[in-house]
Amino acid sequence: MEGVKLVIKATGLKKSYRNGNQRYDALKGIDLSISRGEFVAIMGPSGSGKSTLLHLLGGLDLPTGGELLINGTELSNLSEKKRCLFRRNTIGFVFQNYQLIPAMTVAENIALPMQAAGKSKEEIHERVQVLVEAVGLLGKEHAFPSQLSGGQQQRVAVARALVMQPPLVLADEPTGNLDRKRGSEILTLLSQLHTREGLTIVMVTHDLYAASFAERAILLKDGAIEVDVNQREEAEGDVMADFLAKLHA
Ligand code: ADP
Question: What's the 28 CA to ligand 1 centre distance in angstroms?
Answer without folding.
Answer: 13
